[in-house]
């Protein structure tokens, strides 16, 4: 197997301040590049914070020039970043919870959250998911938060040949034990490397738990942030073996 380095960006979002959050994302991308990270996954709605009441005003089209600094940095660093943003896929469409894949090669791909959390339908429409990322011999399936609460989602990813399941999430203190156990279970059940990028601070009125983590294909913890705050949770595969660590930003 080829070498591969992935990371969860446990970041803190400023509510509604996309420019400030872009600045933080750029700092994370630079820090990740110092650790030779090839794919960096941010939390759900990382560029706006989890702010349903603001989503309609902040939603953009995937090609919006607002993302240009991030796309340019991805190319410069040869790093693919998955960032969270409310999206309008057409001017007439509702707002989706999006994960934008900003490719190291300048490409752009879109994943939209398929399974809304109860109550999100007041601000968002259910999305269509998105294609797995083809990465050498690997297939990296994406998820956004409540997607993984449906066991069919990771199962279908595994059946389609995914080797990695990468989720950008918002998980509160109260939900962390249940949600992390689900993700850990999927790793072992399906033989997937599972990556979970959570918010490192409060967002949308939620006390986010941090503790972003990466689980190996047997369900063991490769690396996990110890709590809240900014962190990079990194997993690296060399000679077929995975190892993980946590780095500061």
UniProtKB/TrEMBL annotation:
InterPro entries: Aliph_Amidase/BUP, C-N_Hydrolase, C-N_Hydrolase_sf. GO terms for biological process: putrescine biosynthetic process from arginine. PROSITE patterns: CN_HYDROLASE (PS50263). One of its GO terms (molecular function) is N-carbamoylputrescine amidase activity. It comes from the Bacteria. The keyword Hydrolase applies. Keywords: Hydrolase. Residues 4-239 form the CN hydrolase domain. This is Carbon-nitrogen hydrolase family protein. It comes from Pseudomonas fluorescens.
